[in-house]
Design brief:
By secondary structure, the protein is of the alpha/beta class. Among the domains are: 209 residues, Rossmann fold; 54 residues; 103 residues, Arc Repressor Mutant, subunit A. Helix content is 45%, strand content 11%. The strands form 5 sheets. Strands 1-2-3 form a 3-stranded parallel sheet. Strands 5-6-7 form a 3-stranded antiparallel sheet, with no helix packed on it. This is Lysine--tRNA ligase. Its EC number is 6.1.1.6. GO terms for molecular function: ATP binding; lysine-tRNA ligase activity; tRNA binding. It catalyses: tRNA(Lys) + L-lysine + ATP = L-lysyl-tRNA(Lys) + AMP + diphosphate.
Amino acid sequence: MTEITHWADVVAEETLERGNTHLVATGITPSGHIHVGNMREVVTADAAYRALLDRDANAELIYIADTYDPLRKVYPFLDESYEEHVGKPLSEIPCPCGECKNYADHFLQPFLKSLHRLGIKPEVYLADELYKSGRYNEGIKTALKKRDKIAAILKEVSGRQPGDDWSPFNPICMQCGKINTTRVTSFDEREETVDYTCSCGHSGTVPMQGGGKLTWRVDWPARWQILGVTVEPFGKDHASRGGSYDTGKRIAREIFGCEPPHPIVYEWIMLGKEGAMSSSTGVVVSIADMLKVVPPEVLRYLIIRTKPEKHIRFDPAQPLLTLVDQYEKLHQTGGTSEYDRRVKELSHASGLCHTDIPFKHMTTIHQVAHGDFDRILKIVERAGYDTKNTECIKQLADNVGNWLDMYAPPFAKFSVQEKLPELAATLSDKQRAFLTTLADVLEESAELDGSDYHNLVYSAKEEGGRLHREMEKVLGEEFTIGPKDLFKALYISLLGQASGPKAGWFLSSLEKDFLIKRFREAAAYRP
């Protein structure tokens, strides 16, 4: 059977046909919360970068924040005071919390911290600094001089005719500060200035250095030439027929004299049943929030295991536990194929904690202990797990606590009742006999682990099983009861509800003496 090559290695092999020196670029506009959907771009870029390094390529990874893009509208997470800033570059707008240097920085800083935790450490470029430093000056002059040729390319490729007053450069009005309401009237190549008029009524002259920016379809290929980008992932919207990559290829070759980068086109990450994540619509789960909930490697795994051209459905509620389970299994076994091992390798983020405690088990332990870490450690030790690395156990407990607070569905939550729940009055005689017998057996037993409890409970329904024999003695008749009713008796006695977490793990998380006392109390309860 032929081994499947991981998609990142396929990208690396294709890219290396163009040479051994490469610059992998990724970029996102920090106009709002940078979310898990955006993470696909940066993790995809990092995977390609790592695959190139593994082949001894001379490779670099950069991240470009489009901080000079205008604020498009007052998003749902902004107050109405931002109406006056619509149209201004993000880097020139006040920070929403008042603690960052500008609007773009407010959303960018948490994202950059998240990147570090994901094991992604690119060189960071800010678009406003690139423009203000003069890096774009030659590109701006070239684009203005070849304005008509660019307009022709845009029409031929996209099918849309730029207006007579269209310009590849958008000046920033010195009066109102907006970048999307101005029109270029002339430019001086030698002085590197641009004359403009603005819909606010103001006219003036701005320097090419920081006085505006190229329109997106021209800015992107100019950036490829300025920075030397050779590989770049981007969303399927840019890759559509006549889209910005199609026009960018022509503009790169015919206007700026460079080759466009090797494309890695990716599909969207869908949030549960709500559709594609988008900051502008508020359909988001921020990367920073998710890193409070799961280890960084799980988020990398979400992206790494799926080909970029396939969409990913992500749900931070109950389905997240399945994702964590799958990663934990891969981490523990190392995978059964070369492909699995490569997925594990590319999912790795350095300096992370690891414990042998399953995330799902910790959701039970955390709730039994009511979040008290000293009690969590005692339960972990009783369950037979290694407790030497308390820092890693604390990190896992914190992740689980945040998941329970932020995303866990109601049915995943429970609380061990301090007093016998009133619902114990509904227990049948057979359920009472089961609890009595279980308490007797526990009293005679040594300390049990989750597997022991699981087998013990199931022995109640099996003829010849330990509990089955004992219950027939108690009842004085043949004992028949379904496993559902057995578990229901346990959960009613302890939680005051008909269902609960996986019984073996759950029971092993509680003190044996407490269980014996509670089961006898429930069996004897007659209101």
